Write the structure tokens for this entry.
Amino acid sequence: MEKVRILIIEEEAQDYLNTRQLLDEQTSTLNIDWAPNYEIAVKRIKQNTYDAYLVGYHANHLTQKRFLNWLYKYTTVPTILITKTAEPIDPSHLDSYRTDFIAHDQLNWLLLERIIRYLANLLALQRRERNFQTIFDNAFQLMILLTLEGILQEINQTALKFFNVNSEMIIGSLLWEIPWIKSLPQTDTVFQLAIVQAAQGEFTHCEVKVPNAKNEMVIIDFSFTPLTNTAGETEWILMEGRDLSECRALEQQLTHTTLHDQLTGLPNRHLFLEYLDQAITAAQSNKDKHVAILFMDLDRFQLVNASLGHDMGDWLLMEIAQRLQGCLKKDTILARSGGDEFMILLDQMQDLNEATLLAATINEILASPFSLDGYEIITAASIGIAYYTGAEESTDLLRNADTAMYRAKIMGKAGYAVFNQGMYKQAVSRLQIETNLHQAIKKNNLVLLYQPQTELASEQLISTESVIRFYHPQNGLMSSVDFKPILEETGIIVSVEEWMLRMACQHLKAWLAAGLIINRIAVNLSAHQFRNKRLINMVVESIKESGLTPEYLELELTENFLLEDIDSTITTLKRFKDMGIRVTIDEFGMGYASLNNLKRLPIDSLKIDQSFIKGITFSPEDTAITVATIDMAHALGLTVIAEGVETIEQRDFLCDHGCDFAQGHLYAGPMENTAFLEWGKQYNKMVNTTVLSTGGYGQRMV
């Protein structure tokens, strides 16, 4: 059993010895120290922990009185004053929670233990009361203790500060008689009902608007909790109040954040659809009400992000949003869908032409340069317009406008298109093609065709260009013109062109093994592939896997994307040249290549676009451009390929003006692998026969 440690503070040694002897005879559970004076007592109390103090009491002892005052401030330990028989106690020496007294002639351990335990319990209760009061007063919530009749008994400091009152003003008052509650219509009735329910043992709560210390009306959520005794009977009601002002403000902020674009502050797609739903509902009840939406996508916005950074792109979007708002009527809804897309709702139109006029106006205002951090940026938008016809849901109308916007882009950007049902059917067809293209390689739905390239001077078969076709399950064989844009937009073009390169190299190897005499094979690369980090490795792997040498491969690239980053382009092309791979600029004349950049590119040849070849026999402009291109290329040490040669007159014109190679239906159209092998053998045999019969090259033939 743990011993009870007691300090006896007694100046008279004989009284200490008598007390000590008495206690030792009655119990062995004590550990007793003695302080013969108050100075030693203070030292022992500061150095040790005691369960109780026994103080020999002396009335009118000034030093003892000062000691007791110190003791009550310094410790919270039960203190028993041992008095002489019939000696009166000064009430100022007693502390109601920790002090008691006993006459020396009545002293015994059983009584002393009971007093110590009683005082210890009182002190523990006092600590709990103080802790509760501290928690009560400093609680974050407003707290009020009520009787079952609704009379206010306690109110914490948080509530007093909130309502700017003092406790004396309201303690003892009926809750609904407090002035700030009584002045609020119906609030007193709400509180009375809540107290009746709580008095019956039911938890309840209510939200009311009350004035705070600044006389601002705020929303408080009050709860009423019944407090029961050990018998389970409700004795008190705890009323707690939580200020919902910040919570509601945060909810509003979150709602705004959820429904608005963080960058521009405009409504987002979700909120735009809500406005659109409201406009459609209004239009359904008023046939004279017209609704249209404009779906905008900025043209070449990605170029700004790529060249100047995303921060500059964000800045541009904010400036565009401001400029758009400046050209709209006050109640017109402008929203940002995300990225570089904006949406406009027109629900107050007097004339259906307002939508198309607004689309034209938008591109007019966007045509003025944006000045951002020293950069002059010019942008434009492709805009799709969809009118509500009475049958569409909001999502359908937005989809239709999006579809029209893509049509506007295809038509040349910086313009607008109005939705019609034909666009929807085309969009569905496009989506189906995209889905099929994703599986095209696995399902062997891609086909490589080959169109021959001949040397004009000798008519010899020199090369072939590989062209891709897609076998659509419903539409049959499709030209690359119809599906290549989809490949590029989805990024599938990278894997498809890798497959093309591998297959072309394998087919050429097989032709050579079968005895076909041909110098090389040409494969087209897109801008996506050219920017692919694996490009060099992919080309090397394809050549090695086929067993060819690099001299057998020719890569065709369009001039526009080559000039986007001229230095990086030169580095990549030089690596191809160092390997022995030929490089040709395809569709030359359709882009914007300058002569200065052209002479810097490590290339081998130019391919004149077929749009110029088509008119060389009757169009002075096409004739001049073609001849100039041939002369310029030769001056730069490049060979020239003419694409789209279909007539003998075109061939003869090109031959007479020094063009090196020709490709077109005059010789043959694109053919599959085995068909090209057979055609090539027959063509070479025919050429060789002609050479033998004429004694040399120079006899032009088909």
